[in-house]
């Protein structure tokens, strides 16, 4: 009788231990699942980070491309209605940021309109320790007028898309597509910097977990290498480069 009772009690202990192990395993699975999905969302901050890389020169954003456009415009080595092409490759550092690039540039001077059309497409890889790392494809068209004025006027259509990993907050990984368009931005012929004006900005992106973001806004250039980004009417970020 005692032996039977001991066996029964032993089986009870085994059952309790199994239940405890199962509960622990379930908790661990939930924790691992939570950890696996962490960082798969995309937030407005993430979107603003990518837009910032599409603007800043250290990530070869639109400000860097407009400087290059200014150099080509200043050269004045173009002929009417004859397109010229240039391929540029390289790598470098700006502070702690590193980058590499491959660009194809095309230039076409329209004599009758006194207009220079400069376009490019290419690929960029970069790592900015306090922002993002990523690989992008980008293309743009800059229509330059005011060739005889003190400043150029540039119409710009700029697009950039790729995969990015944040170095901030939850360190999210996400895909994003940024478009920046503007009319008649005044650009210094000396520095290639945008002096003022406002550009329209759109962003679409998705986190690796499927979270999607679609945002529209504006980027106002305030001069002195600064700007104000507004998204969705209520998100604001001050930019400087």
TrEMBL record:
In its UniProt entry, what is this protein called?
Lipoprotein
Q: Which organism is it from?
A: Deminuibacter soli
């Amino acid at each position: 009788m005692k032996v039977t009772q001991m066996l029964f009690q032993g089986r009870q202990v085994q059952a309790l231990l199994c239940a405890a192990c199962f509960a622990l395993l379930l908790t661990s699975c939930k924790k691992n699942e939570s950890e696996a999905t962490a960082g798969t969302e995309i937030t407005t901050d993430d979107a603003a980070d990518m837009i910032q890389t599409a603007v800043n020169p250290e990530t070869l954003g639109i400000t860097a491309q407009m400087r290059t456009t200014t150099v080509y415009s200043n050269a004045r080595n173009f002929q009417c209605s004859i397109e010229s092409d240039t391929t540029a490759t390289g790598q470098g550092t700006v502070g702690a940021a590193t980058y590499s690039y491959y660009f194809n540039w095309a230039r076409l001077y329209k004599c009758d309109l006194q207009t220079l059309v400069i376009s490019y497409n290419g690929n960029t890889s970069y790592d900015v320790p306090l922002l993002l790392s990523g690989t992008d494809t980008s293309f743009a068209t800059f229509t330059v007028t005011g060739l005889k004025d003190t400043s150029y006027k540039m119409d710009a259509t700029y697009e950039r898309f790729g995969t990015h990993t944040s170095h901030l907050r939850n360190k999210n990984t996400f895909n994003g597509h940024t478009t920046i368009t503007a009319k008649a931005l005044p650009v210094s012929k000396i520095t290639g910097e945008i002096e003022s004006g406002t550009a329209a900005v759109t962003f679409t992106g998705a986190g690796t977990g499927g979270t999607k973001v679609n945002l529209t806004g504006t980027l106002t250039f305030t001069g002195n290498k600064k700007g104000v980004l507004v998204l969705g009417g209520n998100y604001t970020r001050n930019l400087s480069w």
